[in-house]
Amino acid sequence: MSGSGRDTGGEAILVEGVHKRYGEKKALDGLDLRVARGTVHGVLGPNGAGKTTLVRVLSTLLRPDAGRVEVAGVDVRHSPDEVRRRIGLLGQHAALDEELSGRQNLEMFGRLYHLGARRARSRAEELLVRFGLADTGRKAVSRYSGGMRRRLDLAASLLTEPRVLFLDEPTTGLDPRGRTEVWSAVRSLVGQGTTVLLTTQYLEEADQLADRIAVVDRGRVVADGTADELKSRLGGDRLDVVLRAADRLDEVRALLPGAVVDEDRRLVSAPVADRMAALTETVRALRAAGIEAEDLAVRRPTLDEVFLHLTGDGDPAPSAERTGKGTTEEVAA
Amino acid sequence: MTVWALSDSWTMTRRELAHWARQPGQLAVNLVFPVMLLLMFGHLIGGGRGVEGTYVDFLVPGMLALTMAFGLEATMLSITQDLGKGVIDRFRSMPMADGAVLVGRAAADMLQSAVSLVVMILAGLAIGWRWEGSAAGALGAFGLLLLLRFAMLWIGIHLALVAGRPEMVQAVQILVWPVGFLSNAFATPEAMPGWLGAAVEWNPMSATATAVRELFGNQSATGTSWAAQHAELLAVAWPLVLVAVFFPLAVRKFAALGR
After folding, report:
1. Distance of alpha carbon A28 from its chain centroid, rounded?
2. Distance between A100 CA and the closest CA of chain B, angstroms
């Protein structure tokens, strides 16, 4: 089920059959994942799917109960310290010393990464400049905006130029501006060969940043592929017909097998196998029936639709809210 | 890794020193609070049930012990805040020496407590307290007080790791204060009802307070129970027992964050 055709030996992250339970609850239930070097892999899933547990296992914060986990070629269970030298972690909340300045934070973490005092200082300076925080001076982190805090957090996880970077819901709780700031920072990293594993509840975020996406539900990967591959798995294209008048929606639904209707938007949407044939046949049928269409389009399914399809009856609300508004109702209908 | 243990611990201690430098107001409040208590009990509430001689000579050593005991809250608060913010997670995801987080915390808290003791002693001198004993005795008293603080440190770390959230500190405060006041810091056990007096005499804080009074050559509680007669022994034994129990518990709990 997990990424096929990627078995090149060039994995930055290799997870096989990993289990982790908290008491009765199985947080990870035989999860498999492979992430190729230098790529961004999105891990998408509803709340409680096991995303954070996975990141905690990968970043040596949690010991898995069973399974094989390698990060940058090193076994997480046997050599956690070796792994720690090669990774950066951005947790769900900015993990910073709020009382200190940005520079003090970076220098402290740099020393703890054993860069040495001088290198810690110069690295802190470089990163402050790179993340647009050079003019923060002595200001305490507690007085930073959410976006600034997150950028400093990201800078702290890049002190050692890690080969693998884990981002656990990096934009949760940020306003749109903060989100854009974080996204552009992540994009600039990837160009430099860092492998990024990014968990998110937001489809838009995965679509924007990730080369491949693993959909996680109930502690396992239920789908893994590029955004396009995932969209294809939902059964290919859909035909959307928007009518001028709502009173003939039912007639159009009858024309298209498997169609769903959104009355508010006067929209009929149906899966189609052959794009061109569906388009021409529908146009002909509409004309024959004398039905006026305002718009007629063949499109790929949205990631929202894929996500809902894959995670079944899971609660899609957090992701649906944030991405394209219109698309969710059709699917829910 | 072990090569880094010292250097990493020092970095963690320096972090606390940087907090002091950045927020001297906060540090001052922490240092002044016990002084305020001292003045309140010395002048406003005063009295000291069952105390013979000058109350100030009785009160100051008791307040020194109380200040050390209340250090538990400070330790707990710092650790729970770091846990809550995910800072401890970041430390744990870094290749730093295993114990450095706790050692750094311990060193910083002990340092602050030593400063706090000096401030309290100066405040005591200002309101008329004097020590009659030898310099060696005074050093011994200082040592016993810091030993009590060291025990409180590990209890605080353990409780913080168990509680996990800063909000839980308040719950612990509700317990710490009565334990602090159910000691002979302010009044002699003889002046209390029998059962209460007995409990008070066995309170580790009372042992330290009594021993410190003796070492400073101050007015001492003249209890006849075994605990009162062997206060100096208990002032050493109690903290050592508490450390023996809570140090391994705290260390194990810290390691268990990864489970």
Report:
1. 18
2. 7
φ, ψ for residue A225, nearest 5 deg: 175, -175
From the list B144, B145, B7, B16, the residue with the least C-alpha distance to B77 is B16
Helices within chain A (DSSP H only): 51-58, 80-84, 102-112, 117-130, 146-157, 176-190, 203-209, 227-233, 249-255, 275-289, 303-310, 317-322, 325-332
The residue in chain A having the minimum alpha-carbon distance to the alpha carbon of residue B97 is A112
Q: Say if CB A97 and CB A83 are below 8 A apart.
A: no
Domain locations in chain B as residue ranges: 2-258
> Which chain B residues are closer than 8 Å to A87 by Cβ?
93
pLDDT of residue A326: 34
* ipTM for this prediction: 0.89
CA pair distance A268, A259, nearest whole angstrom: 6
Structure-token match 């800063």, residue found: B166
pLDDT grade for A329, boundaries at 50, 70 and 90: very low
| Sign (positive or negative) of CA dihedral A223, A225, A227, A228 | negative
Contacts of B19 in chain A (CB under 8 A): 99-100
Q: Which long-range contacts (CB under 8 A, 24 or more apart) does B26-35 make?
A: B27/B112, B30/B74, B30/B112, B30/B116, B31/B115, B31/B116, B31/B119, B32/B119, B34/B63, B34/B66, B34/B67, B34/B70, B34/B116, B34/B120, B35/B119, B35/B120, B35/B123
Cα A333 to its chain centre, rounded Å, is 26
Q: What tokens appear for A104 in the block?
A: 């003090």
A280 near A271, Cβ under 8 Å?
A: no
Percentage of chain B modeled with pLDDT above 70: 94
Q: For position B210, what pLDDT does the model report?
A: 92
Cα–Cα distance between A64 and A191 in angstroms, integer? 31
Give residue B181's pLDDT.
84
d(CA A15, CA B58): 65
- What's the predicted TM-score (pTM) here? 0.82
Smallest Cα distance from B169 to chain A, Å:
19
- CA dihedral (B175, B177, B182, B184) positive or negative: positive
Cβ–Cβ under 8 Å, residues B207 and B235: yes
Which chain A residues touch B30 with a CB distance below 8 Å?
Answer: none
Helix axes B5-22, A102-112, angle to 10 degrees: 170
A207-248 per-position pLDDT tens digit:
889 999 999 999 999 999 998 888 777 667 888 999 988 888
Distance from CA of B17 to the nearest CA of A (A): 11
Give CA B207 to chain center in angstroms.
Answer: 13
Q: Enumerate domains of chain A plus CATH numbers.
A: 11-231 (3.40.50.300), 235-332 (3.30.70)
